[in-house]
Every structure is written in structure tokens, then in C-alpha cells.
Design a protein that fits this description.
four-stranded antiparallel sheet, 405 residues, alpha+beta
Length: 405
């Protein structure tokens, strides 16, 4: 049974969220209205407001800039563009335009051999739009762990997390390694249910709304243990916040600054990116709240496809993305999750054979296929955070890869 204190607290947080969203509903006009954080995660937004919210996440929480450096390096156009694809999904023959419409795709960019084979923007977006990453941010955070290991800031992937975050000592993260954290196999108890106001994920959002530094790490330090470290996989956005905190503690500067130094300023990005922070001077929210242009997400995907090499020099340890994008064994069971990347684990000889993705709720993707030299960056604005879309995403990815052979 919920207490009256919890109800009143939640009501207060909801009001605060409305205020933080600005007076968009009252004065900005319909075209500029955005929703609240609670409405986003509940899936309670009309299509126009949802799309505008995903374009304007810096109006929900404070952000830190990821500087692009300069100058921008234009993406080349492929001599073999995609004009349409037809494929089977859920027992029906569908095409590219069905996919764009039925799955509410807000932006789609496909690279073959690093060149643009398809680019399209919908729902009021353009090449200049920045869009919410959702959990694509997790894969960016894990990549920075690889960079920190390569730079010597983190000595080993098997170091205990408490070596860098001593505030976690004595709790569920005692004895948890960096590897366990990257695999979401810490053993800490966590409920990721987006639509349940009593879940740990929603409690984490409440800590963000408070806007006080250190409150999310403190929340994680109080979690109970459900399994021994390395024994079981459990998806946790809170765990990725700890990855961001780990990188910050190890390198001694903000995650956004380190990302800019190592990657963003070296790839010819077209725009600065932004990243939610828990408070104006606090930690980046490592598991969400990243925002960038579609072309720049694609450039990041191409960097991953290139094994993290920029101008002949690797940003991450050799073989990092082979490990990051591969299934893992936990307690004798195969888990289709790498280092905060999702391996597709498709059968040998099929188009998705070597592919893995960064993915976020509502249909956000960075798809990387090393064997086929294909990168797909995609934004979507689906009605609910999770659930099966009308057309299966991996079916479309396979069809696009086949069309580019």
C-alpha cells in the first residue's frame, strides 16, 4: 500500500517537472510544447509533443556540452543509394515506406563503407536537429571505459569498482568488478520498469528532479544484493550512471569533456552534443540524456565499426569492440549483451551475422555491422517506451544490408 507521504512527494515532483519543462504549454504555443519527464516514460504524450520533447531534452534537465571541435568533415554520398527495400516481417511483405510510417521513424541514415546510402528526416526533423539518445548513451559511456583503460586511468577491466568509487564500499557493489558493471551483472537488485512509479528507474528520475549532486550514486550505494557478482544479468540504467561516475573519478574530469577530447572533437562532427547532468555542476547521467544530430550518431557508429581507430591511432584497447559487441556467458548461460551493446547473435551467413547495436527505448538505434561495413543511425518516436513495433527492426536492418551488397 502506498503511503500518503509517497503520494504527496510524487505530486510535488510532478509539479516541479512541469515547471522545469518551461511554460511551453501556457505560452510557447502548440508547436513548441514539450511534456514532462513522467509523461515521457509513461508514454502519455501526443505525437507532436513527444517529437518536440525528444528534440528539446535540454529543457527537462541541465546539460553539459560535448564540444565538436572543428572543422566538420562532410559525409560522402554512396554511388549505390537505397531507393526502396522489400522484405518479410511478421508474416507480411513490407517496404521501406511502411517501415518509416508504421514504426514512426523520425530520422534514418544508412552508411555503406562510410558513405551515405540513405538519409531521411521525418516528424519535423532535419540534419540540424539534435535528438534524444535514450539508452544509446549507455554504449557511449561504456566506450569511454575502454578509452580510460587505454589511457591508463583504469588499470584493468577486472579492478574492483570500489577502487575508483569508494563511496560504494560495504554495499551491493562491494566485490563488483568493472567488467561486472559493463555486463550489468553486478548482482545489485534493480527494477527497470519505466512505467511503474515505484520502480528503481523512476526513483532515479526523482533523484534527477531534485537536482542535487551525488544523490544517484548514494541511491545506488543503498541497493540490496540479489545475486553474487557475475552470476546474473539484470538491465539497469542506474548501473550505467555508475559507469559514468567511474569514468569521471578515474580520469579526473567530466565525462562530456573526456568524450570530446577522445572522440567527438576528432571525427569531424557537425554539431556539439549535449548530455544530461544530475545537477548544474554534477555528474553526467551515464545511461540516458545524450543528444546529437543523426549524422553525428552515424559518425560515432562508423568510429565503432572502424574498431575505435582515428587517424591510425586506437582510442580503445585492441579488440575492445569485438568484446563489447559479443554475447557473454554468465553462470553457464549465454546472454545477448556485451559491454552495454546488444549483439544480434544472428546465424552465420545471414545479413546481421556480425551486427550489434546501441539501442534506446521508443526505437533509437546505432547499428554496427563490421562484416558488411554498414552503419545505421535511427531515431523513432513510438508511442510507448517498450513493446514490439509493427515491423521488426532487425528484419529491416537485414533487408537494408542485403540491398547494399
Amino acid at each position: 500500500m502506498q503511503s500518503s507521504n509517497w503520494k504527496s512527494g510524487t505530486a510535488a515532483l510532478f509539479c516541479l517537472s512541469v515547471l522545469m519543462a518551461g511554460s511551453a504549454f501556457a505560452s510557447d504555443g502548440r508547436s513548441n510544447a514539450i511534456g514532462t519527464v513522467q509523461q515521457v516514460y509513461d508514454g502519455w504524450l501526443t505525437p507532436d509533443v513527444q517529437a518536440n520533447t525528444f528534440r528539446n531534452i535540454d529543457r527537462l534537465f541541465p546539460t553539459r556540452t560535448v564540444n565538436r571541435g572543428g572543422p566538420a568533415i562532410p559525409l560522402e554520398t554512396s554511388s549505390k543509394p537505397i531507393t526502396d527495400v522489400k522484405f518479410q516481417s511478421n508474416g507480411k511483405t513490407v517496404d521501406l515506406f511502411d517501415y518509416l510510417s508504421l514504426n514512426r521513424v523520425a530520422g534514418l541514415l544508412i552508411l555503406k563503407d562510410g558513405k551515405v546510402a540513405y538519409e531521411d528526416y521525418e516528424l519535423g526533423n532535419s540534419e540540424a536537429t539534435r535528438w534524444m539518445s535514450m539508452s544509446v548513451a549507455k554504449s557511449i559511456s561504456s566506450t569511454l571505459v575502454g578509452a580510460a583503460i587505454k589511457d591508463g586511468f583504469i588499470k584493468s577491466i577486472d579492478d574492483p569498482v570500489t577502487q575508483y568509487l569508494p563511496e560504494l564500499a560495504g554495499g551491493a557493489y562491494e566485490g563488483v568488478s568493472v567488467r561486472n558493471l559493463l555486463q550489468m551483472a553486478s548482482g545489485a537488485k534493480w527494477d527497470e520498469t519505466y512505467t511503474d512509479p515505484n520502480s528503481d528507474r523512476r526513483h532515479m528520475l526523482e533523484r534527477q528532479l531534485e537536482g542535487k549532486p551525488g544523490t544517484i550514486v548514494a541511491m545506488m550505494a543503498r541497493l540490496p544484493r540479489a545475486h553474487e557478482p557475475g552470476a546474473a544479468w539484470n538491465y539497469s540504467t542506474g548501473e550505467t550512471h555508475l559507469v559514468g561516475a567511474l569514468v569521471r573519478a578515474a580520469v579526473g574530469r567530466p565525462v562530456s569533456v573526456y568524450l570530446s577530447e577522445k572522440i567527438w572533437s576528432k571525427l569531424g562532427m557537425e554539431q556539439d552534443a549535449t548530455w544530461w547532468v544530475e545537477s548544474p555542476n554534477g555528474l553526467e547521467v551515464g545511461g540516458s540524456g545524450f543528444s546529437a544530430t543523426l549524422r553525428d550518431y552515424a559518425r560515432f557508429g562508423q568510429f565503432v565499426l572502424n574498431k575505435g581507430v582515428i587517424d591510425g591511432e586506437s582510442v580503445v584497447p585492441e579488440g575492445w569492440f569485438d568484446q563489447a559487441g559479443s554475447p557473454k556467458e554468465l553462470s553457464g548461460k549465454t546472454v545477448n549483451y556485451g559491454f552495454m551493446w546488444w549483439p544480434l547473435a544472428a546465424p552465420a551467413g545471414t545479413p546481421n551475422e556480425s551486427a550489434f547495436t546501441a539501442r534506446g527505448i521508443f526505437g533509437q538505434y546505432v547499428y554496427v555491422n563490421p562484416k558488411e561495413h554498414v552503419v545505421i543511425a535511427m531515431w523513432s518516436a513510438r508511442s510507448k517506451p517498450t513493446g514490439a513495433p509493427p515491423i521488426v527492426d532487425v528484419d529491416f536492418f537485414a533487408a537494408a544490408v542485403s540491398a547494399l551488397r
